[in-house]
Each structure stands twice: as C-alpha cells, then as structure tokens.
Design brief:
Blueprint: E1 2-8, H1 16-26, E2 32-38, H2 45-48, E3 54-59, E4 73-74, H3 76-81, E5 86-90, E6 93-97, H4 100-108, E7 118-122, H5 128-138, E8 141-146, E9 153-155, H6 162-167, E10 170-173, E11 199-202, H7 211-218, E12 222-224, H8 227-241
Parallel strand pairs: 1-2, 1-3, 4-6, 7-8, 7-10, 8-9, 10-11, 11-12
Antiparallel strand pairs: 3-5, 5-6
Helix pairs in contact: 4-5, 4-8
Length: 244
C-alpha cells in the first residue's frame, strides 16, 4: 500500500484529502490512500515518517516553516522562502518542495496584463510567502496591507486613496476573510474605486465566488479564485512524491 497525506492543524476543511481520494478513484489507483494527520506539535512528524509505506505528504498551517529542520534536502524555492508545503520520502530522506509557488504562478499569470506593475497583498497568512516569491520573479512590486501596519506596510485606510489604487492594479487576498461559513465578509477596501484596470485574486476557494471577487467583478475587474492554485499545487505534489 502506498500512503500519502497532509500534516497541519486544524484539518477539518482540508482540500487535499477529497482531491486525492477522487483522483485515486478516477485513475483506479487501488493501492493508494491519503490520510489527514492533525499533529499537536511538529515533533510528531517523527512517528509519521517511521511508516515505511508513507511516500510523501503535504503541509499546511502551522507547519510550513516548522518542517524545515526535518528536511534532508530542499528545493531552491524552499530555501529562498523558508517555507515547504510538500515532502517526498525517498530511501529515508525527506526532500522538501514548495508547490504553492507553481500553483500560484500558473493560475495567476493568465489574467495578468502588461500594465500590471504594482500589487497589494491583503494579509500575511496561508501562502503569502509563495505569492511574494512569484511577484518578485515576475517583476511586480508589492506592499502588504495590514490592520496594524509596520513602516513597510499600508493600512486599510491608506489603500482607500484613489491615487494609490490607480497605481496598485493587482490586489491579492491572502487572508481567510470571506471563507465559508463567513462568506458574507470581505476585505475592507474601496471597491467603488475599482475599474476594469484592476485584477483581484483570492486565495480563498470556498465559496468559489467570494464577496471580494463579486465586488471586483461588479466594477469590471478581472478576477480569479484560489481553486486552480490548489489543484495545480496538488498535481505538482503528486509528481514530486512519485519521482524516481
């Protein structure tokens, strides 16, 4: 039996388990299973990886950075971001990858246009480090927006400026605001100032059309939700887990 899984806490609404169980059923992979592993502490990963049938696992909050000391090898992206969301187990070695980067870039780029040079990142959670990595690769300047901003960040009040929003045409929601069951919520930005020049990307995938995206769409903005990122990332995990 080939075992795969995900570590994190909590995992009640994990995307990965259903995705891979559906994949195994569709591809008739009867010798594969996928399990959720809610670890109270990262140290519990030692017990998990002692299972000789475990071929790999993905990682969600709060362990994307905490897993680093356990890795034998890591990709350049993991090293650059100090964040890992995918581990292949091969001959006792733990090889770390960051497939959030692949998922975000491939789902983000299709709607990017030549006039998009500046991006706002709402929140620092989830895959924010992967978002930053990709924006830097693409040559887009970015600023974080925070309720308690540092000197290098904008406040939510500041981004209600027409001049600022004219410059920052890309807005990426990395916060959980708007996620089911609180889908009536939306980040506090000046939606009335958005135009067809703007591009709103939401890492939230449930609901598929968040209030953030609805408000952007109503003003003509390009929009994209987080589902393609997760699906692309999951397939990249599968490739990594099964590398020879």
């Amino acid at each position: 039996m080939k075992k795969y899984g995900i570590i994190g806490r909590p995992l009640g609404h994990s995307f990965s388990k259903k995705y891979f169980e559906d994949k195994f059923a569709e591809e008739a992979l009867s010798d594969c299973v996928f399990e959720n592993h809610e670890l109270e502490t990262i140290d519990q990963v030692k017990t998990l990886i002692s299972d000789p049938d475990l071929k790999g696992f993905c990682i969600t909050i709060p362990y994307k950075r905490a897993i680093i000391p356990y890795l034998t090898e890591m990709s350049d992206a993991v090293r650059a971001m100090d964040a890992c969301n995918c581990v292949q187990i091969k001959k006792g070695k733990l090889i770390g990858y960051n497939t959030d980067v692949i998922g975000f870039e491939q789902s983000f780029v299709p709607q990017l246009n030549k006039n998009d040079h500046y991006a706002l990142i709402l929140g620092t959670g989830g895959a924010a480090s992967a978002v930053c990595y990709v924006l830097e690769k693409l040559g887009l300047a970015y600023k974080f927006v925070s309720r308690s901003p540092s000197n290098e960040q904008f406040s939510y009040e500041e981004i209600k400026s027409p001049e600022l929003l004219k410059q920052y045409t890309v807005i990426i929601n990395c916060s959980p605001v708007g996620t089911y069951p609180k889908e009536e919520q939306a980040p506090d930005i000046a939606y009335d100032l958005l135009t067809e020049q703007h591009y709103l990307y939401d890492l939230v995938y449930n609901p598929p059309l968040t209030r953030f995206l609805q408000n952007g769409q109503a003003n003509g903005a390009r929009i994209q939700n987080g589902y393609p990122m997760l699906a692309i990332q999951a397939e990249a995990n599968w490739v990594n887990w099964n590398k020879e």
